[in-house]
Amino acid sequence: MADVTNIADELIASMGQAVEIVAGRMEPGRVWTPPEIDVAAIRARTGLSQARFAARYGFTTGAVRDWEQKRRQPEKAARTLLLLIDREPKAVARVLEAVSKAPLAAA
Hints:
It comes from Gluconacetobacter asukensis. By secondary structure, this protein is mainly alpha-helical.
C-alpha cells in the first residue's frame, strides 16, 4: 500500500483494494472460513429442547431450528458461544449464573 498519512487516505486505499479483490485482479490478504458446527449435536449433548436451549443461552427458538436444519449458519458471536457451550459447558453455566445474580447497574 502507498504511504498512508491519515485515516481518510487509509480508507480510500482499502476501498481501492476491495474493488480490485471483487474484480478478481487482487487476492485478499486473508479469508476467514468458519469451522463446521453441528448445532443439533451440541444441543443434544445438553439434553435440552430447542426452546429451552434457546432460552438458556439467549438465542431465539427459530434461530436454533434454522441452524439445526441448515437453513442458516450462526453468526461469528453465536458460533463462538456455541463452541464454548460444547467444549466448556460448566464455564458457560458459571458465567450465566453469576450474571443472573449480579445486581443491575444504576442507569
